[in-house]
Amino acid sequence: DILIKQLMKIGNKLTLLLAKSCLSEHSLQRLLSINQPVLLTAINRKLSEDIDIFQHQGKAVYSWQLVLNALGYIHRNDPQEIPEPDVKVISYITAELESCILDVVSIITLFRQNIVTDNSLLNKWLKPLWQIELIPQLCKKHLSVQEYENLVNRFGCENQSLREPVLQKITEVDLLLIELLQALATEPQQNLPPLNQHQRSLIATAIQKGEVNAQNIIQLFQHSALYNRDGTTWLASLWQLAPVSLVCKKHLSAKEYQDLSQRFILNNADKKLITEDRQALSALDNLNITGNHCNQPRIINRSHVDRVLFTEQIFPCQVSNAGILVLWPILPALFNRLGLLEAQKFIHRQAQFNAVCLLDYFIWGNEEVQTERKILNNVLCGLMAGEIIELAPLESEKKLIIEQWLDAIINQLPTWKKLGRNDVRQLFLQRPGELLIDNQEIKITVQHQPFDLLLTDWPWPLNIAKFPWLNRPLQIDWQNI
């Protein structure tokens, strides 16, 4: 127990040495020969930086787990220190990977990190692992189509049957949309089959590659027959794809885009459809766009159901998650861990959208879509307060990272150690407050509650928050602190 406690306290330099030892055949064999499952599990957890790797005390740790987590640790902390591949180590883990139950999270996380950075040293380790038939299959199952294709292009694919169906289906997306429109023209009341995650990924990838006619997307959203209970649910799932909503944003007026945004965000937030009279629904047949089958400009008219979106001019406003500011210094590290930052800046605009959704899960522990929950998150991530965020389901490994990250924070803060994950969320993170934005400042006022006694000796200031991607600090008024 003493050794394990000391192990968990060692710094980055010693942990890097430990990780390198796991990538050497001689050192790895010495480590495994200790035959202390609890110690090996602790090493594994240290290298994975508290990611839950599905290990239990007393359960044997495979060498492939140590190797993958060692590679991941070095890649995250000092990627240029990744050593040349050890052929014997690769042969050991190849044999194990082909014969044991796999830890999907470790594998997918490492390959996804490689997609983002394309580290040549890491590539040398991953390429022989990619030749194991099960690895491409797992990546195809758990990664998006675009991510999987990136890996195929990088490492090749021995089994062409894995690649061809993906490419073939992508090229068929536009044909599928045309067939749907034709079917709706002949049988407008039919229910469309639900879209699964893989189909959604195919559609998004095809749009990004320019293989989909934008008019086909627009015509689906203007088709009045789809604005019934089942049809609107189908369109809502399509709208959550960022490329789809971006197509609509490009080809529709700002008013029309906002109208659709409110409809589908509210649809998901309430877990029910907004019921309106048939006359209002049929007005969606009058989108202001000239398509293949419509020559006159047409206008949406749904003013009676318009809802106010917050902009910088409509303040102050009430928020329900002001307490997230209690952890403001750790947010850049969390976003960096999730692959959203480079040089302390968001890598692209979609990364900001992703950060908003991940931050929402960090605070609430669920994926319920509530617009007001996103207002403060938008500001913290450098977006406009009323920005419409196109949501997609969070990947299981990202949820896992968030939960483990929160657990690690709780364990490191003395006054929180006796609290559980949900206690922290309910008592602190989900704290009501007020957001004020004007030309001079951004100010968040946090409502005081009795539990704030636990913040008396807090390790960082709670009157100001600074983020490297924002051009001005946030003023915090945590009442009575």
UniProtKB/TrEMBL annotation:
Superkingdom of origin: Bacteria
Name by which UniProt lists this protein: Uncharacterized protein
